[in-house]
Amino acid sequence: MATYALQIAGLVLGGVGMVGTVAVTVMPQWRVSAFIESNIVVFENLWEGLWMSCMRHANIRMQCKIYDSLLALSPDLQAARGLMCAASVLAFLAFLTSVLGMKCTRCAGDDDKVKGHILLTAGVIFIITGLVVLIPVSWVANSIIRDFYNPIVDIAQKRELGEALYIGWTTALVLIVGGALFCCVSCCHEKSSSYRYSIPSHRTTQKSYHAEKKSPSVYSKSQYV
């Protein structure tokens, strides 16, 4: 019962992580405009994402423009676009794999050992996906903070951390925790199966004992002869 609860928790966390990964990939709020010193134009908010940049006017109207070229992006955003696309695919594959290994599904049969290996695979993929999400989010955040405190960079070009970065960190944590839960479930399956096969049943022990009593040894037969 405890392992089934861990499976459900891992599946829920994995599903949330998959949705969060896709959401972070498409959100434009990776970099947002910073209002510092003389830059106090609060009626316009600039958002920069992986696929487009958006300008929001007075919290009413928003205009978005897709980037004309990939080469026009900074190196961190270029790498983040590729890594986030890979993370979205990995999260989807990990979620499907975890569904196949669930106790309530019959796609992979009823063998607990096989399902344990499937859940272990899903857990490892979820953990890898969390790390893949964590790398671009932290990379972009580091570049934003570095440029913010760089006196050479113009004030109008300085940006702040957007909502997508915070959601990305949370998503990475959720994916890693969900993968760890699936790995724990797989370890529990391995321990239970090894314990089941290592300890013989009481009936088998009694039968073997009576068989030894009934069948005389070769040494005792030679004494009677």
TrEMBL record:
Its main location: other. The keyword Transmembrane helix applies. GO terms for molecular function: structural molecule activity. GO terms for cellular component: bicellular tight junction; plasma membrane. Keywords: Cell junction, Cell membrane, Membrane, Tight junction, Transmembrane, Transmembrane helix. It is a multi-pass membrane protein. PROSITE patterns: CLAUDIN. It holds the Pfam family PMP22_Claudin. It is found in: Cell junction, Tight junction; Cell membrane. The chain crosses the membrane at residues 79-97, 118-141, 166-188. The keyword Protein transport does not apply. Claudins function as major constituents of the tight junction complexes that regulate the permeability of epithelia. Belongs to the claudin family. This is Claudin. It comes from Bos indicus x Bos taurus (Hybrid cattle).
